[in-house]
Amino acid sequence: MPENSPIAERVLGDLLPERLTWTLCIHIDKGKEVWVIAGMLAQYLESATDSVIVRDDKENPIGTIGGKEIMENLLKNPTSSLFYGTKVEDIMEPNPVVISRDTKYKDLIESWKERGRAYAVIANEWGFYSAISAQKILEIGKRCITELSIEDMPKKKLVTFKKDDTFGNVINSMFENKTRKLFLEGKS
Fold first, then answer.
1. Taking a C-beta distance cutoff of 8 angstroms, is the pair 101, 125 a contact?
2. Rounded to whole angstroms, how far apart are CA atoms 94 and 53?
3. What is the C-alpha to C-alpha distance for residues 147 and 149, in angstroms, rounded to an integer?
4. What digits encode the pLDDT tens for the residues 130-144?
5. Cα atoms in the Cβ-side hemisphere of radius 13 Å centred on 149
6. InterPro entries annotated for this entry (predicted)?
7. Which structural domains are found in the chain, ordered by start?
8. Which pTM value belongs to this model?
9. What's the CA gap between 17 and 6, in Å, rounded?
10. Three state DSSP letters for the chain
């Protein structure tokens, strides 16, 4: 496809020819308890990823799990049995988004909108899967010439919480406002 065609119509293999599979995805095998993934996510959430692939016995991706699934289930079951006694496959989002080099950019973005998660995997040259996240898509943006400016970006309401709010109130507020970050009122 010509380089001057709209990004939405181009395939990911053309948009990121060398770097598409450079980011290996973090994974966990089914059968592990939720406390294991909670510990992994605590290390990765602010740096590399907010989602982890759950693999079956043959190392195929069967689901995705992240802070969202843990928090949703913590609201339903606010006890330690969620972490010690629940398997990752019991709370994961099944059927992860698996793409290829021939996936169009617009199709990837549409699947992310439907799922509410900017995460997919792609088979790589080493026999497993690499992660495709919003961070990877930003690499495409770095290479583009555009008239888009910061003021053209959608604006989000700043969501806050108070010091005396309960843990449940804070988590519910995150889901209601579709945000991963809240700000403490009265602090700058």
1. no
2. 10
3. 6
4. 999 888 888 887 777
5. 1
6. CBS_dom_sf (IPR046342)
7. 7-142 (3.10.580.10), 150-184 (no CATH)
8. 0.79
9. 17
10. CCCCCCHHHCEHHHHCCCCCCCCECCEEECCCEHHHHHHHHHHHCCCCCCEEEEECCCCCEEEEEEHHHHHHHHHHCCCHHHCCCCEHHHHCEECCCEECCCCEHHHHHHHHHHHCCCEEEEECCCCCEEEEEHHHHHHHHHCCCCCCCHHHCCCCCCCEECCCCCHHHHHHHHHHCCCCCCEECCCC
Alpha carbons 102 and 29: distance in angstroms, whole number: 28
Q: Which amino acid is at 52?
A: V
pLDDT in tens, 10-36: 899 998 888 888 888 889 999 999 999
pLDDT score for 48: 55
Q: Which residue has the tokens 């406390």?
A: 35
The token pair at 116 is 């509410």
Q: Which two tokens stand for residue 94?
A: 């099944």
**Residue (of 94, 87, 62) closest to 73 by Cα position:** 87
The Cα 130–Cα 12 span in angstroms is 13
